[in-house]
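// run 5 | inverse folding | seed 20
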């Protein structure tokens, strides 16, 4: 590293994050920490290692990161002891240091055999390398399997080849490993008591291995975190967690009651924390999650939001507003990639010019570009997708008055969309704010629907007191397509986003991935409504949405395929 400090490292893999201990004050920290990770077919393979300096009370500062495809690494160098990786600055992608990582592969059967030896040694009370039947019985009882009382005699006799009443640990370990594969007898972890999923035998074994590691004195990385940011928080956050002022969660509570918004990155299959000022979270919850707050909104606060958005929009168009760009980039430094931006930073003369920045050609490849029966993501966003409108109200939209007719407004014939599919593209302030067509077709018409400017943050969307999507200012674009029938593309304004600008006009022929327009300063949302049975949305998007978990996607990623053409199309990254 370039300076001395106390450091910690976090490893994020899929929906798990682990952290090391904190190093001594040095510019060359050594952790000697390890963690076993399970590589599964079609599962995550990309691990992100983040390094934080720990000199702050409430929040530690990320200094650099590297990403490692574990599958590629172990295939290319299965016997590698240690390899150096560049640590990249999240804001600029400049190299700020290097990290040495070692990685090895264990065969599952070998891992299970080694694990069996370790747990069997616990009840080897006289430490002679042999187990009596009574010692083995004690272990079976700890496994929590009611059938074990019968099975343990059978297993013990099978291993006791000479019939002398004792067996070696090696013999019994091999037998247990085979038995656990055929018919698991370990129903609960002997260390923590957690019930194990019998359908997921390998993960259950790894769970127990890690539990035993915690007590062996090995420097095993601490788990139980969702994101690297959560794992890196300092003692002030730990205190707030303990007093229940701050919580992390994945699922239904994420938007409405949790103090941190967690989404899953589709490309890396890793959980990511969305950055948002804690004071803003508290104020939004006070307004949108209570009858009193929404009552105040009805008594004139809507006009205040309108005026605030107009004033803020004018302010962000001034030359002086460009001074806010560096601090904005610093706050979102690991979530904005300036290497993708078309123009250098000094090109932007106002904050809004930067906010509606264009990307370099090719920065957002379009999935299956030559197939019009494949729909794609319309924005860089946090996406929720539902095969039916009923699913959307069950898992996500909690406003009591939400309906397709209310969303599209009285000037659009909504009958064809009433039982259709719904996709919500939520743009956060740090996102690329130009939106693109998800389908190929012809623009039939634009319909402006007047309304308020509530926030589109999940805190408001998940509120039963607020009807964000049917009350906010919005523009409905009707697109006629050959593959999907009619598609309603709804651009929704939000707090600080009074301006929705379109770069296309009625009658234009558009290809999927073509730019349609942009939102000025703030965060906002696009909703696409498809006619019933016109699209089969990708399963991973539906599965995440059924968990009330937003999926982080970029423009051009595959969204779904039109019925009845359901051929597989590989995702573009």
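// decoded
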């Amino acid at each position: 590293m370039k300076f001395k400090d106390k450091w910690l490292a976090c490893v994020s893999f899929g929906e798990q994050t682990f952290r090391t201990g904190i190093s001594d004050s040095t510019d060359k920290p050594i952790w000697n920490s390890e963690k076993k990770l399970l590589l599964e077919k079609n599962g995550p393979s990309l691990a992100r290692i983040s390094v934080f300096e720990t000199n702050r009370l409430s929040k530690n500062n990320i200094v650099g990161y590297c990403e490692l495809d574990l599958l590629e690494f172990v295939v290319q160098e299965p016997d590698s002891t240690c390899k150096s990786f560049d640590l990249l600055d999240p804001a600029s992608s400049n190299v700020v240091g290097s990290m040495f990582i070692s990685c090895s592969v264990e065969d599952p059967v070998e891992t299970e055999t080694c694990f069996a030896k370790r747990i069997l040694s616990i009840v080897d009370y006289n430490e002679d390398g042999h187990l009596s039947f009574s010692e083995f019985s004690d272990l079976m009882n700890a496994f929590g399997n009611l059938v074990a009382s019968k099975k343990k005699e059978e297993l013990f006799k099978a291993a006791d080849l000479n019939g002398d009443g004792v067996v070696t640990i090696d013999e019994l370990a091999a037998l247990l490993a085979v038995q656990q594969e055929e018919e698991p007898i370990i129903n609960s972890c002997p260390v923590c008591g957690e019930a194990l999923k019998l359908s997921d035998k390998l993960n259950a074994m790894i769970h127990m291995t890690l539990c035993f590691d915690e007590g062996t004195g090995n420097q095993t990385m601490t788990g139980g975190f969702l994101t690297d940011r959560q794992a890196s928080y300092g003692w002030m956050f730990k205190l707030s967690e303990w007093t229940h002022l701050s919580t992390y969660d994945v699922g239904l509570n994420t938007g409405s009651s949790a103090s941190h918004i967690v989404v899953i990155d589709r490309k890396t299959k890793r959980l990511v924390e969305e950055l948002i000022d804690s004071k803003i979270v508290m104020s939004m919850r006070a307004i949108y999650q209570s009858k009193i707050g929404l009552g105040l909104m009805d008594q004139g606060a809507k006009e205040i939001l309108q005026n605030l958005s107009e004033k803020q929009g004018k302010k962000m168009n001034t030359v002086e507003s460009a001074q806010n760009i560096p601090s904005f980039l610093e706050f979102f430094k690991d979530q904005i990639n300036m290497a993708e931006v078309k123009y250098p930073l000094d090109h932007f003369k106002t904050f809004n010019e930067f906010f509606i920045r264009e990307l370099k050609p090719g920065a957002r490849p379009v999935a299956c570009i030559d197939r019009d029966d494949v729909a794609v993501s319309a924005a860089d966003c946090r996406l929720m997708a539902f095969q039916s409108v009923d699913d959307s109200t069950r898992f996500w939209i909690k406003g009591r008055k939400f309906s397709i007719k209310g969303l599209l407004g009285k000037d659009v014939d909504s009958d064809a969309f009433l039982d259709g599919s719904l996709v919500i593209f939520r743009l956060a302030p740090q996102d690329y704010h130009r939106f693109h067509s998800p389908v190929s077709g012809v623009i039939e018409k634009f319909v402006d629907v007047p309304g308020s400017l509530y926030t589109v943050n999940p805190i408001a969307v998940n509120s039963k007191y607020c009807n964000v999507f049917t009350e906010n200012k919005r523009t409905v674009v009707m697109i006629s397509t050959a593959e999907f029938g009619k598609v309603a593309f709804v651009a929704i304004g939000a707090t600080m986003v009074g301006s929705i600008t379109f770069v296309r006009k009625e009658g234009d022929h558009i290809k999927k991935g073509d730019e349609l327009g942009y939102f000025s300063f703030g965060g906002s949302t696009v909703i696409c409504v498809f006619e019933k049975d016109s699209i089969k949305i990708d399963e991973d998007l539906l599965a995440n949405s059924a968990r009330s978990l937003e999926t982080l996607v970029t423009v051009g990623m595959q969204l779904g395929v039109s019925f009845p053409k359901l051929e597989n199309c590989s995702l573009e990254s």
